């Protein structure tokens, strides 16, 4: 394999990554390759952040063709971006802005559709001192103001895209004590950002977000639209969003591992061809074979999770054109949708943990094969190792993701996996 597209060839025969979709990926890959040559490096974080935003703006026009399946295409785009650098994980697509498009009132959703199409960026502020995935335990809270607005106060931790984001989706308790998701503009009064230098994934700024009586109007900036069939409670919005988002992160991580695999392979091949080494040892050959197999297997799970999520959302849309969708849909419709949603959520959580772990194992196995050169701070392999290690904590600590998956499997709440046409038989 010589290019990231070669890794995706195994997925090309399927209907989701063929024809115009594949041509669009080829165009994206060519632009990614050209833009990667302008990378200023990591020595100046501010310059790198500005470059990444510029890349996002220049690649905003890349999207799946009209009528094509957007989920599998975006997963492939994430793989192509990660192959070159995990910092390019926001190079295309809506990212966390998708939660606004899915759940915001129409005017706000349309505003952000235009902003995201121009390269705008949105951050997620969910994690607090107790950890990120225990969303029901958040303490950030809103109190009603005299003019009908809310005043939100609290402290969020480990927020990525801290200085680059134009807005944050903040998870907080509403005045009734329920978990809610709200959109907070990044320039809101009372919002303070404290940047912390991370050990990996340093392309985007990262740190703490404090809110001190930040004002917003719940009629326009509260997510979860009244009268629609989608989730309205903040915990449901969180879970729905990350069922879509985590497989995309996984695809990006596996792209990074694939890039390391190709770099190691080509380095070893060159050394053998030039006489630098008389032969490639068996342990190196075994490591290459194991890594190739693990990356491909985990990538297939990530892509299947994307397809399952897309099928679940399509099934819900079919049954949910009004608030009483559960009354109008047949029991068969509801069972199929519920099965799809449960399985896609499980695959997103366990698949993200497994996929990133597989990428970490592959890179740790491969890096020593080219010797000390790969352990220089500025070397792409050293950067990939640090970035992937950080990704074991971002978007869900892996022990927690595996544990939640095991709990659901033990409780029998997840039915058999489904294919595009319905339940598997």
For this structure, what is the CATH class of the domain at 122-221? Mainly Beta
Name the helicity range. Answer: 40-55%
Give average pLDDT, whole number: 88
What characteristic shape results from the CA principal axes? Answer: globular
Q: Spans of 5+ residues with little confidence (pLDDT < 50)?
A: 226-230, 318-337, 416-425
Q: Could you name the CATH homologous superfamily of the domain at 122-221?
A: Butyryl-CoA Dehydrogenase, subunit A, domain 2
Number of helices: 13
The CATH topology of the domain at 122-221 corresponds to Butyryl-CoA Dehydrogenase, subunit A, domain 2
Strand order of the largest sheet: 2-3-7-6
Q: In the CATH classification, which architecture of the domain at 122-221 applies?
A: Beta Barrel
SS-derived structural category: alpha+beta
Give the total of beta strands: 9
Strand content: 5-15%
Order of helices and strands: HHHHHHEEEEEEEHHHHHHHEE
Instruction: Specify the biggest β-sheet.
Output: 4 strands, antiparallel
Roughly how many Å apart are the termini? 35 Å
Specify Rg, calculated over alpha carbons: 22 Å
Oligomer: single chain
Outline the fold blueprint.
Elements: H1 4-8, H2 20-36, H3 45-58, H4 70-84, H5 98-103, H6 106-117, E1 122-125, E2 141-144, E3 150-160, E4 167-173, E5 179-185, E6 191-195, E7 206-216, H7 218-221, H8 234-273, H9 282-319, H10 325-328, H11 331-366, H12 380-391, H13 398-411, E8 418-419, E9 422-423
Parallel strand pairs: 1-4
Antiparallel strand pairs: 2-3, 3-7, 4-5, 6-7, 8-9
Helix pairs in contact: 2-4, 4-8, 4-9, 8-9, 8-11, 8-12, 9-11, 11-12, 11-13
């Amino acid at each position: 394999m010589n290019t990231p597209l070669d890794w995706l060839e195994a997925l090309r025969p399927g209907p989701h990554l063929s024809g115009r979709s594949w041509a669009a990926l080829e165009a994206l890959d060519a632009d990614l390759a050209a833009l990667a040559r302008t990378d200023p490096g990591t020595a100046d974080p501010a310059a790198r952040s500005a470059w990444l935003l510029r890349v996002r703006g220049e690649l905003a026009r890349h999207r799946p063709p009209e009528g094509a399946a957007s989920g599998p295409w975006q997963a492939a785009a994430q793989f192509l971006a990660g192959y070159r650098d995990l910092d390019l994980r926001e190079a295309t697509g809506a990212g966390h802005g998708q939660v606004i498009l899915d759940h915001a009132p129409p005017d706000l959703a349309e505003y952000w559709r235009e902003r995201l199409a121009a390269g705008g960026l949105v951050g997620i502020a969910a994690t607090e001192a107790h950890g990120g995935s225990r969303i029901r335990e958040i303490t950030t809270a809103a109190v009603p103001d005299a003019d009908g607005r809310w005043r939100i106060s609290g402290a969020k931790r480990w927020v990525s895209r801290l200085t680059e984001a134009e807005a944050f989706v903040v998870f907080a308790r509403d005045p009734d004590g329920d978990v809610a998701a709200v959109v907070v503009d990044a320039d809101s009064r009372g919002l303070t950002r404290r940047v912390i230098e991370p050990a990996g994934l340093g392309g985007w700024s990262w740190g703490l977000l404090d809110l001190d009586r930040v004002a917003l109007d719940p009629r326009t900036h509260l997510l979860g639209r009244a009268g629609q069939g989608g989730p309205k409670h903040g915990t449901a919005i969180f879970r729905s969003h990350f069922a879509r988002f985590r497989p995309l992160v996984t695809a990006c991580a596996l792209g990074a591992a694939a890039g390391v695999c190709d770099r190691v392979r080509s380095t070893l091949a060159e050394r053998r061809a030039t006489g630098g080494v008389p032969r490639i040892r068996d342990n190196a050959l075994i490591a290459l074979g194991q890594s190739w197999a693990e990356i491909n297997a985990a990538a297939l799970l990530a892509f299947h999770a994307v397809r399952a999520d897309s099928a679940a959302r399509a099934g819900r849309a079919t049954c949910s054109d009004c608030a009483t969708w559960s009354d109008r849909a047949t029991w068969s419709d509801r069972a199929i949708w519920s099965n799809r949603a449960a399985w896609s959520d499980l695959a997103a959580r366990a698949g993200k943990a497994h996929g990133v772990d597989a990428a970490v194992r592959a890179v740790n196995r491969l890096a020593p094969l080219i010797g000390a050169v790969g352990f220089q701070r500025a070397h792409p392999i050293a950067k990939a190792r640090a970035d992937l290690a950080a990704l074991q904590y971002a978007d869900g600590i892996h022990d927690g993701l595996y544990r939640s998956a095991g709990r659901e499997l033990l409780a029998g709440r997840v039915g058999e996996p489904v294919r595009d046409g319905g339940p598997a038989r």
